[in-house]
Amino acid sequence: MMTPRLFLSPPHMSGNELKYIAEAFESNYIAPLGPMVDRFEQSIHDLTLTPHALALSSATAALHLALRVLGITSGDIVLASSFTFIGSITPILYQNAIPYFIDSDTQSWNIDPDLLEKAIAAAPKKPKALILTHLYGQCADLQKIIQICDAHGIYLIEDAAESLGASYDGKQSGTFGIFGVYSFNGNKILTTSGGGMLVSTNKKLIDKARFYSTQARDDAPHYEHTDFGYNYRMSNILAAIGVAQMKVLEERITSRRKIFDWYSEELNDISEITFMPELSNTRGNRWLSTLTFERTDPNTIRLALEEHNIESRPLWKPMHLQPLFKDSLRTQNGTAQSLFEKGLCLPSGTQMTREDVTRVSSLLKKALK
Ligand SMILES: Cc1ncc(COP(=O)(O)O)c(C=O)c1O
Predict the structure, then answer these.
(1) 207 and 118 in one domain?
(2) Residue 84, domain CATH
(3) Is the CB of 229 under 6 A from ligand 1?
(4) Mean pLDDT, rounded, for 94-123
(5) What is the per-residue pLDDT across 266-325, written as a single tens digit (0 to 9) for each?
(6) Do residues 224 and 253 share a domain?
(7) How far is the CA of 367 from the centre of ligand 1 (A)?
(8) In what order do the strands lie in the sheet with 313-314?
(9) How far apart are the first and last CA of the chain?
(10) Do residue 303 and residue 235 come from a single domain?
(11) Which residue's alpha carbon is at the smallest distance from atom 8 of ligand 1?
């Protein structure tokens, strides 16, 4: 009989989710919004110390609202990480704005600050915003990037979809820009099955985002509209899952980091393997344990693991290499492409045991021979 599938990053419930869902049912807030949404937002305040949070249907929706509220519109240039997931970028297209992709550095795998400077200088007109991804739960080189954005009057929006709980100089990722965004999609470190959160220190901006997230309803007893919005708010039922999940965030980070350390111990002596680095003033959440192979095609490893019902996945294909963006603006140094060609994400679910990690590592080593 086949051993049960080892997934890349399956949901991990704390055991209290159903209790909070039952509470939501008892209150009959089977609706978007309600007391659980307030509690979920409060838990994000408590974690991030950011005064304003807005629970939404997804991180993609949160990024879209951020751009809309900042007045990013048709023909505006928005700088963005090339090495990211497409949900980070589609909101730029929703606004008919123009993405400008920046390549990564090797120390963080996130945006290279030197290239960011170059891109700003080379842009056909002044970019209005930067969407900066903290990939796989690792913080980008924030200090330099913030300096550059400030010097050029560019809004910084942090895509912290994958980096909930990660910190830079002891401060939470997602709290450095004018907006920060977290995802609670099914594969993330915490999940509400699907969901997102927008945070900001600016109340006016969050109030505006809230207005747009509920169909831009003016203040009237009937339905009055002077502008258009979206149906982007989070369901009270899903927020109940989020309330329970947020209580175990620290445990989950500890587990993800432990899994990464186990892989490192198991595979340390293989010279062609390099693990994703971590900047010294940061603590990532190690959402996924990722590595690169110097000589071996990672797809041979992926297929070898698949034979044993183990899910692994290539690293994100950079946006500037996507057919959709073949003609896009970009400043490259080849890092993201090289990471994509050499890299693999290993199973990293927080229910994994040491034995699981040893099994995956042994199969990986066998495939390398
Ligand atoms: C870096 C990044 N940005 C944005 C998103 C979009 O998040 P969501 O699925 O909540 O819309 C994701 C993941 O799903 C992501 O990994």
Answers:
(1) yes
(2) 3.40.640.10
(3) no
(4) 98
(5) 999 999 999 999 999 999 999 999 999 999 999 999 999 999 999 999 999 999 999 999
(6) no
(7) 31
(8) 273-275, 289-293, 343-346, 313-314
(9) 26
(10) no
(11) 59
Q: Is pLDDT of 1 > 80?
A: no
Q: Are 137 and 162 in contact (CB under 8 A)?
A: yes
Whether residue 163 has its Cβ less than 6 Å from ligand 1: no
* C-beta 183 within 6 A of ligand 1: yes
88 lines ligand 1 (CB under 6 A): yes
Q: What is the rounded distance in angstroms from the CA atom of residue 53 to the CA atom of residue 109?
A: 28
Pocket of ligand 1 contains residue 287 by CB under 6 Å: no
Q: Which of 5, 73, 309, 44 is nearest to 184 (CA)?
A: 44
Shortest-distance atom of ligand 1 to CA 84: 1
**Within the chain, how many helices (H) and strands (E) appear?**
12, 15
Using most ligand atoms within 8 A of CB, pick from 185, 233, 287 the residue to mutate for ligand 1: 185
Q: Ligand 1 centre and the CA of 134: distance in Å?
A: 11
Judge if 242 and 253 occupy the same domain. Answer: no
Decide: 234 in ligand 1 pocket, CB within 6 A.
no
What is the residue range of 256's domain? 249-368
CATH (domain of 260): 3.90.1150.10
Predicted TM-score of the model (pTM) = 0.97
Could you tell me the two tokens for 232?
């982007």
